[in-house]
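seq as requested:
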Amino acid sequence: MNLAEIKDKRIAVLLSGGVDSSVVVYELARLNLHPDCFYIRIGPEESADGSSDEKDWDCSSEEDIEMATAVAARYGCRLQVVDCHKEYWDKVTSYTMDKVRAGLTPNPDVMCNRLIKFGTFDEKMGHNYDLIATGHYAQTEIIEGKKWLTTSPDPVKDQTDFLAQIESWQLKKTLFPIGHYMKDEVRQIAEREHLVNARRKDSQGICFLGKINYNDYLRRYLGEQPGDVMELESGHKIGEHRGLWFHTIGQRKGLGFGQGPWFVVKKDVERNILYVSHGYDPQTAYKSRFAVRDFHFLTEGISELPQRITFKIRHTPEYHAATVQTHDNGCHVICSDQPIHGVAPGQFCVVYDEQHHRCYGSGEISVEPTPTLPKGGSMG
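struct tokens:
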């Protein structure tokens, strides 16, 4: 973070009440900058009669705001609460439910960054600022005149995968003041500075759910739709499920069938059948080739992927090496060097360069690979 580049900029900080965004405020304050701070309220949905389900959903927003207020006041910053509740439930929840209803595996946190934190917030307040600072573990770098999203040195906490769907104009406004730190270093700074939330635990799971179980969230909006569970290899029925949306490809835990372990390997949405495979490491749970559609490029002016890449399909420290086939219809086929466990349609495949440093963006994994020939060659 170069002071010369940001000292004359109008900076807004998205202050959640957690330790990461609080250290962001400290990092800017120690440079004698006093940014405006904003707490984005998304909270639980209101019920049909207009009453809040705050108690039912165990939302921690009041505690968050209390923490954020204390941190902002300590560093002489103004804090404002921005209500993005309606936009969240209209945009992100509808995206989530549409995807799971279609048998896909969505990522609400990815879309929250694009649509709410860097989207709706910008429409309401962020357009008044040159830079939006957040506590994400990510970095940016100017390479040959273009701003790239680059990875954090902390492979466990790196959050570039959650940012890989933001728009190029949003990327231009991002500022990640703690992105060059390891998580332990951020904790140490918070404790050294005696921040009120220095030892507060990191939030887990989807950002707005609090302690609510994800399946309870799905049940609330989609209910249950019982169907058969079949063994893929034999076609034998081994039980029943309560709804395809309660299961993800690659899932092993929580299936509740005897003589396991069982892995979820396929969903037939039309027939409402969940297919599973038996064994500790069944080959049917792996794929080495899959299609990615609607690839979203992060950096303005970049519209092609290199032939050799690394990628992720879930939030893990590991990167997988692969070759990319680009097709005439704009689809990409990822040919992984090694078979990958739990490739699920609807997941985002996040693509990086070979050194897993620069993030190109992400696309949604398709149900089946495209049959269209790749540009300048055969399927090989």
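The first strand starts at residue 11 and ends at 14.
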